């Protein structure tokens, strides 16, 4: 069998159901390796690890959940990266050195309008809910960290290095994600750079880990039926048969919990995290259930009583920047028009019901925006045919995403507006007064607030 | 083939896959470490060290300390403690008010999370205690 990781030669031993010795006296039933030398006292000795629940079956169950969960996280993460249209313009690109890692990029669509709400809501909520599964998986394999001898062969060294990268990067990805959604920017550098390249470092190790372990995992899962296992109470819980994996305890303690109990506890942990988080993405009356998530409450009531990513004050937007002296400049090659807010209001007004969806996973329900279609603004500067991409600039003085480029498919969507009003009232300063971009399925930070200049990029 | 396996300790496919993986790791890693390389390395490898050698031993020790609880009640303490600790682990920046920009960015009060977490914790232990009482009552009646 190729692709099998380096293992002790006695791997297939203990395939029967002989119960392991429980006396703990003398040498463990299986020698740790054919070295003849006993490991130093402590966690390197097989009898140090006592939990009767550890074993290849338990690890396989947790690994399978992570295999599916992390695959969804990776795909939704790549989609989120594409949603920023990083290949379109330098201002959209948080990771200009990405090289081939952006090979799959495609123009982000505007339909369905809740697309980013869905993909990013899944990415963040699922990531949060998988934390206990990840911790349990790492707990289930911890004896292998202390395998003795630490390096048996070059192949074993290669595998251990790969596992260090796997564990380090998966914790790095979960940590940066969990910290970023709480605006706790303690990580060293831009979240986009760290989380994106970190994801590729992780995937490189994850794919080979799956390749090496899939066979043993499937065999372990087949060795006992989940449904049967879930009927065993704590007092009848036996350790898995001793094998060469190093996971099954050589000197197991008496069980205080069944495998059903452990899996139930992990599931309850996931469920609890889901329950206090998901409401910030689902919205509506369920928002209030997101008790510990950052966007589980609405900031006030009334037309502007929906989620704010960055308030005007927090990014240095001053009253005079958005007061009566505010002007909107619309430009294209050789043409320029400067409009007061009243002039913009006098242009044909259209409405669109669209959500705000943030990379941090939270989103709003559809808000009722009204304003001028981006295609009408393009027509003002002579672009009457198919509208091109547009460079959008804000009066915002500091912070990221003061400017962005919207792709032509986004500009041409009839629901894409330079919005002046929302839910029947003028925009509030925190929602981008005097005018903001709203585009279906667009990541929140690309729906630029406090817009002062639109530069169409010439005929498409 | 056998000679290779004896020297390397695994199949040639193992080495091929691992080499491909390390090459991709290096490609992404160069970009990950482009700025603040030292700190990023501390975060990346420190995460593994911190988890394996600090967090995991700590919660294992905490779990062993539960050994003093009578077996019948053990999981009635273990499960709510696990869930409460998990909620704190994930949401500690908000619960412990460590997120400086939160209030000014979102326009929301940062002062609700600690109380909510404490109340959730109280509810978890309370519900677990009620379940334990019910079980004791039922086993008392059955006896």
TrEMBL record, chain A:
It holds the Pfam family Oxidored_molyb. The chain crosses the membrane at residues 57-84, 122-142, 163-185, 197-215, 261-279. InterPro entries: Mopterin_OxRdtase_euk, OxRdtase_Mopterin-bd_dom, OxRdtase_Mopterin-bd_sf. Keywords: Membrane, Transmembrane, Transmembrane helix. One of its GO terms (molecular function) is oxidoreductase activity. The keyword Zinc does not apply. The keyword Transferase does not apply. Residues 325-456 form the Oxidoreductase molybdopterin-binding domain. It comes from the Bacteria. Residues 1-48 are annotated as: Disordered. PANTHER family: BLL0505 PROTEIN (PTHR43032:SF2), PROTEIN-METHIONINE-SULFOXIDE REDUCTASE (PTHR43032). This is Membrane protein.
UniProtKB/TrEMBL annotation, chain B:
The chain crosses the membrane at residues 38-59, 79-96, 116-134. Keywords: Lipoprotein, Membrane, Transmembrane, Transmembrane helix. This is Lipoprotein. It comes from Wenjunlia tyrosinilytica. It comes from the Bacteria.
